[in-house]
Structure formats: C-alpha cells, structure tokens
Amino acid sequence: MGEMPDIDVKGLVKRYGDVVAVDGLTFAVQKGEVFGMLGPNGAGKTTTLEIIEGLRTPDAGTVQVLGTDVIAHPSTVKERIGVQLQATALPPFTKVREAVQLFAALYQRSRPVEEVIEEFNLGEKADAYTDKLSGGQMQRLSIALALINDPDLVFLDEPTTGLDPQARLNIWTVIEGIRKRGKTVVLTTHYMEEAERLCDRVAVIERGRIVALDTPRRLISQYAPGTTVEFANVPGLDVESLRKVPGVERVVADGRVSITTRKPETVLHALLDPSAPWVPAEGADGDAGGEGEGAIRDLMVRHGTLEDVFLSLTGRSLRE
Ligand code: ATP
Fold it and tell me: Which residues contact 41 (CB under 8 A, 6 or more apart)?
C-alpha cells in the first residue's frame, strides 16, 4: 500500500478526426501485476498502449510510467520498458540471432544474447531467417526482443493472436515466467481464457471506455454469477416449460441448450426427471430411441467466464 503504481493514467483521450479512439481512460497498474486490457477490435487498446509507451501523444489526460511523465519526457522510460513489436517491424533478411543482437545493441543495459535465445527455446532456430519461423516461434522471438533490456515493465500487444492452441499454451508459460520474475506486464487480448488465466486484473474496454475493471474472479461473480448447465438440443424439446423449472433464470437454445441458474442442484434434479413435461414425447425426433433416459445428452456444468461478463456488460459477444 502507498507504493507508487508503475503506470498511472488519468483522463486519457485520443481522437482521430471524428473517431474517439480513447474516451477518458483512468486506471493504474501496480508493480508486479499482470494487467489485461480486454476488448474487441477497434476498442482502443493499441492506441492506449502506444500512448503509455510514449509512441503517441494524447489529446487530453496524464500518463505517469515508472514515476515519469511520458508525455513530457517520452524517451526517459525507454530503457526501463519492454515493448513487443509486431513481426513486420523486423528488418528483412534478418536471422534470429542477429535480431536479438540488433535489439541488445539498442540499450545501454541488455541481457546476454545466447542466454535469451536459450530461454525462449530458439536455439535450434538461431541461424534461421525470421520470416521462416512458425507463428509460435515468431511470437517467442518478439517477446524475447521485448525482454532483451531486462525491463521492469513489459507491454505485450495480443501476444497469442493467430496461434494454434499448443503455441498459445507455450506463450502462456512464457508470460507466467515473466510474472514470476516480478515484472509488471500489460497485455491486450481478445481471448477470454487468456485474460482469465494470466491476468491479476482486467480492464474490459469497449469503444474507448473502461466498462469494468477488476480481478477476473470478481468480474465473473459480479456480472456473470451462477452456473451454466448445458446439454445437446433435441427436436421436440419444450423450451417454454423448461423456463418454468424452479431455479432456471435464463434459457438459450440453439445447437445446445444453455440454462443459467444459481441453483444447479435443483435444476439438474429436474432435468434428469424422465417424466418432466419438457422432455420430447417418445419418438418425437423420429428415431426409435426411447430408452427411458429422457432428453439429456452431453451434459456439461460450467461456471461463468469473462466471455459471459463481456456479453452481460455490452450485449455483444467478443468473438469476431
Ligand atoms: P485491435 O484489437 O484491432 O488492435 P484496438 O482495440 O487496439 O483494436 P485501436 O487500434 O486502438 O483499437 O483503434 C481504436 C480506434 O481508432 C479504431 O476505430 C481505429 O480505426 C482508430 N485508429 C487507430 N489508429 C488510427 C490512426 N492512426 N488513424 C486513424 N484512426 C485510427
């Protein structure tokens, strides 16, 4: 308590012509925190990051980074922050080791090149051209480059966008490692599971504004409380009488049926009753079926997620 935050943003505004990309953001990021900015494309995440990094000037507001006013002194914090650049920012015909050497030379203080290559599991690719790397290798390289100056504060802009699940998991492990070393991390993402797994706190951003900011757990308990009971939809299922089952708060039926409830035991008990009125009449779906098992197949019970939070806050899904 009382310690100065690593980032302190107040009343930030950025306009591009008529577009208000950032519309009055105020937040602080504490030392050692993994802070997520979550929002759909165009929400203003990248613009906000670039202002904090000293790469863009806001139209209004103040930004303190590691105790320095970055608007007045944009180059002062450069030695102490790490910025993950997009893959396209690398010069052409650069090999992995050369890229790491190039970035190391940009700083007064830098980590040993070979050590960083090993740490990011790029040893086998050290002599490969960077444009021949896989998506996951390229992301590992760009994060390695962001850490070459051993910064206190690291910015990662959509570190896993476009990666397959295995490569994404690898990057998550990398980010968890950065966190264990006590660094402060700010990351943008539009992947819910990523924010939920990695972030201590998440700012949910929509149209340049923060619509909610808290730990994933508290966001979920505030905006997506309760349990979702899901199962495969079947022809003839009577959704209307399902809505009348005690404890059922909301029913959404498409390919699957999703029931929101704060009384999952009551709802499950009712669901599994084969004589319930909403179970399709025997043979209603045309096949002989009718083993007396009711209509429930592929039953799944899950807690609310940040996806549900976003939906409940904005009425929109984050998925593109
Ligand atoms: P993404 O996830 O797609 O990167 P984002 O949340 O990072 O989205 P920004 O890139 O910050 O969003 O963009 C916010 C808004 O500002 C968008 O409407 C975008 O079109 C606009 N914008 C961003 N940069 C510029 C620019 N240089 N000139 C004009 N408009 C811009």
Answer: 190, 320
For ligand 1, atom 21, name the residue with the nearest CA.
Answer: 21
Q: What pLDDT, on the 0 to 100 scale, is given for residue 290? A: 45
Q: Which of 13, 19, 207 to mutate to test the pocket of ligand 1 (most atoms within 8 A of CB)?
A: 19
Structural domains in the chain (count): 2
**Per residue in 165-219, pLDDT tens?**
888 998 999 999 999 999 999 999 988 889 999 999 999 999 999 999 999 999 9
Whether residues 79 and 113 share a domain: the answer is yes
Domain residue limits at 32: 7-221
25 ligand 1 Cβ < 6 A? no
- Closest-CA residue, ligand 1 atom 14, reads 44
CA of 205, closest atom in ligand 1 = 6
Any atom of ligand 1 within 6 Å of the Cβ of 184: no
Q: Are residues 205 and 267 in the same domain?
A: no
Looking at residue 273, which CATH number applies to its domain?
A: 3.30.70
Same-domain check for residues 117 and 250: no
Give me the residues of the chain with pLDDT under 50, please: 284, 286-293, 320
